[in-house]
Amino acid sequence: MAENTRSVLEHTAADQWKVLPSGLTVLVRPMPGYSGTHVIYATRFGSIDRDFRLGEREVHLPAGVAHFLEHKMFEDEDGDAFAKFAKTGANANAFTAFDRTCYLFTATEQLDESLDVLLGMVGHPYFTEQTIAKEQGIIGQEIKMYDDSPDWRLITGLCECLYHSHPIRSDIAGTVESIAEITPEMLYDCCKAFYAPGNMVLAAAGSTSMEQILAACARHGLMDERPAEKVERLLRPEPMTLAAAEKTIAMPIAKPCFGLGFKEEPLPFGDLRSEMLYELILCCICGGMSPLYRRLYDEGLTDPGFGGEVLRVDGCCCILFTGESDRPDTVRQLLLDEIERVRKEGVDREIFTLCKNEKYGQLIENLENVEDSASQMADFALAGQTVAQQITMLAGLTAEDADAALQHILRPERMAVMHIEPDGTAAEEDEEEETEE
């Protein structure tokens, strides 16, 4: 990419940002001419953060606490925050990932009022044994929904094979048994440890300004200094061996699903360069522009959704390939053969350039949408970077870097396989429907 073109892209992606006296990182992308504003309030606290030291005291959590806390944040002594957002006309939501929890809303009017709801509910948690008991039943139903998702079961099954003790083995929502152990004290400990402003990011994009966002922060005391809690995450050492080489389960699906997982060395915090390099390698091996993808698709060996992804969190990095196929063993061998071919011959230079340009396009395209723009800012800020830094880093990646990385990743000896076979019930349901017709 030409230097002047890259400079223009970096300037376009330059967001306004500020670290407040409280420690909160604020990022704003004013987008004149847009009617809506998307706001994300995110914390570096996800499902893997189950063991930590708070001050001099160790805290050990059952699986699913971060997700449970996300649900409970919307409820306080004054009622439900969703009802408050409804009064301002904002569309609110939240989600929990392995390493983060995000609260968000989109508004076209009454932005100040919606900001007050968001900052107020996250800044003033309220939990009782009664409200927790009520939520346990609701989340129990959500857990069953995840259990019925073959895509999610592939991911969790592969993580169970790849890791011995890392908490990524556990479902983000936990289990019905694990969430039954949750107490108000656990939730307050999590808020004290991880919902401190210094561990959080506030990102806004659209019809707003840094001054408007800072004014909202001031109304909620976030412009004042806050004493920092002493928090230390505790992770057990994880060997590079596999917990299991293969796993098979049966589900009510019409077509077999399969997954391959490769256990990689964990990446240091903020090392988004290696993560993006791995993603470019996957694009070259089995992305939509690769010879392997075209062959698999043309011969009907996989569904169009087949592909690879990089999953990395603190203490964990793995590369996963998932899809549907009636001939999963054939697909697996073709994939392994292609990995070895590319390892020996090097990545195709033309495909690497196309994949790299596609990444540029995704980064820039996200700047044109308020939701994507705010999400992109928040994601990178949680890793200590900006969108402009991502563009600079991407520009520096070369095909030679990909060749070098391929010498130590995607090793067959660190590979696990996951199969989901049809249990026959899906076919029976189809036959019943045909009979009724």
TrEMBL record:
Residues 182-357 form the Peptidase M16 C-terminal domain. Pfam families: Peptidase_M16, Peptidase_M16_C. One of its GO terms (molecular function) is metal ion binding. SUPFAM superfamilies: LuxS/MPP-like metallohydrolase. It comes from the Bacteria. Gene3D superfamilies: Metalloenzyme, LuxS/M16 peptidase-like (3.30.830.10). One of its GO terms (biological process) is proteolysis. Residues 63-175 form the Peptidase M16 N-terminal domain. Keywords: Hydrolase, Protease. Its EC number is 3.4.24.-. This is Putative zinc protease.
